[in-house]
Design goal:
This is Thioredoxin domain-containing protein. Keywords: Membrane, Signal, Transmembrane, Transmembrane helix. This protein is an alpha/beta fold and about 375 residues long. The protein has helices at about 1-10, 20-35, 45-50, 75-85, 95-100, 140-150, 165-170, 190-200, 215-220, 255-265, 280-300, 300-370; strands spanning about 40, 60-65, 105-110, 120-125, 130-135, 155-160, 180-185, 205-210, 235-240, 240-245, 270-275. It folds into 3 domains: about 20-150, Glutaredoxin; about 155-280, Glutaredoxin; about 280-330. Helix 1 packs antiparallel against helix 2 (about 20-35).
Length: about 375
């Protein structure tokens, strides 16, 4: 604002005799008042009553800075808050001119509203439809990029067995770009948090996909991720037909290692080629192995081995009987065809002498008539 004042003063300085300076100070005061009007300190109870219906989808969302008062990282949150509060592009008169929303709220509370499973301090992005936490780095530029992605409607992809390969193109060269895949037991609140993480990752060119291994079992088996019952998600990075598996211990909603892995260090982890999609034969084989192991636990390995040998004997006997039947039927058809061909040839041979005898008889009769005459 001070730079704007100096610039306008230098432009209006040659104009003498006109009270431009007083008008200029009035204008600057008006702009400053409009800018500060968008920054609001409210209570937690009042925040819970707000529905943000005036914040249109596609416009700048409302920014909500929630801090518990004093903490080790509260100063960094306060610093980002003050930077946005003094930014005329995001607040104040510029919002009115550009038809943006984007009010900034500051709340002192240790509780996060709207059933978001995170702890204070936290930054929330809100409009008339969505309320998401910001899960990126505490920096003015990173938060600005996340706001842009939020306005574009970015969210985490809900990946299942049906759409995983179609959306990620994992085994066909990753034509849809890099993907960070998190296997976790999800619900509505968890997806709300992962949507907040997705806006930060998409600003860096990475798509986020969430897979529930308890429901999408085929995708879990494909990437060797079992059904999880603990609170430790698994994380993979799909990059240029390679899959990088996070080798550390990952806690739910601890996004510092997630950002570090996705944006910087995934090359340092174990990599291998993306496995092909599973087929029906894989499912049949898994079913056989699974039931074999269950029966082995119940009845012992000796009984299962004997039963397996008996089943193999029955299968081999059935296949052998089927082959013998097929060969016998093929031989019967061939014998019948040969007999039919032999009968036809004998009939033709019998017919030829008959014709010759008839011809000789006619010739004999004609000669006899000539003699009588």
């Amino acid at each position: 604002m001070a730079l704007l004042l100096i610039l306008i003063s230098s432009l209006l300085n040659p104009l003498k005799g006109i009270r431009w300076r007083k008008c200029l100070f009035v204008l600057v005061y008006f702009l400053a008042s409009m800018t500060n009007a968008a920054v609001r300190n409210i209570t937690f109870e009042l925040l819970c009553k707000l529905d943000f219906e005036d914040v249109l989808v596609g416009a700048n969302p409302a920014l909500i800075f929630i801090t518990p008062g004093k903490c080790s990282i509260c100063e960094r949150f306060e610093s980002v808050y003050l930077e946005f509060a003094a930014d005329p592009i995001y607040t104040g008169i510029m919002i009115e001119l550009l038809n943006f929303q984007g009010d900034i709220y500051h709340v002192n509370s240790s509780v996060v509203p709207w059933s978001i499973p995170l702890e204070s301090p936290v930054i929330l992005l809100a409009d008339s439809e969505r309320k998401l936490p910001y899960c990126g780095y505490l920096h003015h530029l990173h938060l600005t990029n996340a706001i842009h992605q939020f306005s574009n409607g970015v969210r985490a992809a809900r990946l299942t067995d049906a759409n995983f390969e179609h959306d990620t193109q994992a085994s066909t060269g990753s034509t849809t770009g890099d993907w960070l895949i998190i296997f976790d037991l999800v619900n509505t609140s968890a997806l709300q948090v992962y949507d907040g993480l997705a806006v930060s990752l998409r600003a860096r060119g990475i798509s986020l996909g969430i897979v529930d291994p308890s429901k999408s079992t085929q995708t879990g088996k494909r990437f060797d991720v079992s059904r999880q019952v603990s609170e430790q998600p698994s994380m993979l990075m799909l990059h240029r037909s390679q899959v990088y598996r996070y080798s550390g211990t990952l806690k739910r909603f601890d996004f510092a290692p997630v950002l570090q892995f996705a944006l910087n260090s995934f090359h340092e982890h174990q990599a291998h080629a993306v496995p092909r999609p599973r087929m029906r034969f894989d499912e049949i084989l898994d079913w056989i192995v699974e039931h074999y192991l269950k029966l082995e636990v119940q009845h012992g390995s000796f009984v299962i081995l004997a039963a397996g040998i008996f089943v193999l004997f029955l299968a081999a006997s059935s296949i052998g009987l089927l082959l013998v039947t097929c060969f016998w039927m093929a031989g019967s058809f061939e014998h019948a065809e040969k007999a039919d061909n032999t009968g036809r040839s004998s009939d033709s041979m019998d017919d030829e002498p008959t014709h010759e005898a008839c011809d000789n008889a006619e010739e004999h009769r004609s000669k006899r008539k000539l003699k009588e005459n």
